[in-house]
Amino acid sequence: MADVAEPVEHLDVLIIGAGISGIGAARYLRTELSAKTFAILEARAASGGTWDLFRYPGIRSDSDLHTFGYEFKPWRDRQSIADAPRILSYLRETISENGLGGAIRYHHRVLAASWSSERARWTVEIERTDTGERLLLSAGWLFSASGYYRYDEGFTPVFSGRDRFRGPIVHPQHWPEDLDHTGKRVVIIGSGATAVTLVPAMADTAAHVTMLQRTPSYVMPVPREDALAELLRKIFGDQRGYALARRKNILKQLAVWRFCKRFPTAARRLIRWVNTRQLPDGYPVDEHFNPPYSPWDQRLCAVPDGDLFRAIRHGQASVVTDRIVTFTENGVLLESGRELEADIIVTATGLNVQAFGGVTVTVDGEPVLLRDTVAYKGVMLSGVPNLAYAIGYTNSSWTLKIGLLCEHFCRLLAHMDSHGYDVCRPELADPAMPTRPFLDFAAGYIQRVVGDLPRQGDRMPWLTSMSYSSDVKLLRSDDVTDPELHFTRVADRSGVGA
């Protein structure tokens, strides 16, 4: 830890990150454990996480807000697949309605966290990003809600000849406020959720937009507005109507995922049929919209009201499936020999995954290597005491799991308080238990770093569940105790900052 002059302040819980997960965690603490002291540490100058960071045209969720929103706060907007400003407004309403504004400490970047078993607390090293000042805080618990990717750097492959291109090259994670694409030829490199969002958003004013992909993705049109959810809200009111719409959409997500996993050939055919109906007659669907993998080996890309297909039908946008040889002065040269001319190139090539915000963690002086840990209930890590983390679902709405694990976290703290425990540490009963990757997901951004992430086991409680119904039982209904979760008391609590 760095030498600092400022005295240490102690809190019961430090939440890292003021995005959708951190705001949710703070609200559950405020309502379920009102006596607990906590703070949310946010490295940036604003709340909202992803929904404040990304500013590229058309940015929106790819999950419906009846399930991506919080269970405790109804989504009242007509947009079900909502754009970022609406989501950001919803998150900041949550902060205001629950009195969380004073708990957020902006410009506080967490650099390192050190656990002391003797004191039963974390000491956390923080950098003030606005002043460069270093300070220390201590806490009984850490709750990592920092997301899963680096905020300061997106992923861009090495492109030969990149410096030759005479126009701007932009990554969506760092979109310039003054970039004007009106009347320009735009090439967007990528085929994921960001690319299929950008294409129709830019196509209305650009001269032409080309989505250049190495490999196709599964793309499905979905209604931007949920008519049935609106009807339920009108009939049953905000609270009950929202709960019913949420349940409906949870079941719908589960049904689609199960169908795709159990009947991948039929799912592929159905998606192709839908795509064919959305595209012009004679369009080469198999070339541009027929991935080599099965549906839901990676996330399906949702396009609200089929806006991507509409841009293609109207001639405003096109898709090219090829490989890049080199950038040129005027665009991109492809393996086929074709040159795509461009005034602007957008590299929608993904994220750099970064677990726990890149924070260096030590336990009693020993560094914690994530790859050597096993995830406990998808909430804690083997051998690491009093640390919880928020990772949502990859096969449905992220926030569905966040709500459940926040509830579980509060129940766990309440159990410790009622029994006088200071320390909670998951420990493997069988260190030789077979393990596998933490996330069984084929997306490139996961596969690039899967070897550095925690592992999961072959049995509960060491499995990372991606099933909402299973997690309702595990995290909400089942007891918080487990033979492999060890609780201890520490007699001496008179350390610094007590």
Largest sheet: 9 strands, mixed
**Can you identify the CATH class of the largest domain?**
Alpha Beta
How many strand segments? 27
Q: Overall pLDDT, averaged?
A: 93
**Helicity level, as a percent range?**
25-40%
N-end to C-end Cα span? 19 Å
Assign the CATH superfamily of the largest domain. FAD/NAD(P)-binding domain
Uncertain runs: 1-7, 492-498
Task: Estimate what percentage of residues fall within beta strands.
Answer: 15-25%
Helix-strand category: alpha/beta
Rounded Rg: 24 Å
Account of the protein in words:
- This protein has 498 residues and is α/β, with parallel strands linked by helices.
- It folds into 2 domains: 9-151 and 352-488, FAD/NAD(P)-binding domain; 156-223 and 281-349, FAD/NAD(P)-binding domain, CATH 3.50.50.
- Helix content is 29%, strand content 24%.
- The protein has 12 helices and 27 strands.
- It has helices spanning 20-32, 50-53, 65-68, 84-97, 193-203, 227-262, 264-278, 285-288, 307-313, 398-419, 444-447, 468-477; strands at 9-16, 38-42, 104-106, 108-116, 121-128, 134-144, 149-154, 169-170, 185-189, 208-213, 219-222, 301-304, 317-321, 324-327, 331-334, 339-341, 344-347, 351-353, 360-363, 366-367, 375-376, 380-381, 387-389, 423-426, 436-437, 455-456, 485-488.
- The strands form 8 sheets. Strands 1, 2, 3, 4, 5, 6, 19, 20 and 23 form a 9-stranded mixed beta sheet that branches. It has a 5-stranded parallel beta sheet with strand order 8-17-9-10-13.
- Helix 1 (20-32) runs parallel beside helix 10, helix 5 crosses helix 9 (307-313) and helix 10 packs parallel to helix 12 (468-477).
- The chain is globular and about 75 Å long.
- The model is unreliable at 1-7 and 492-498 (pLDDT under 50).
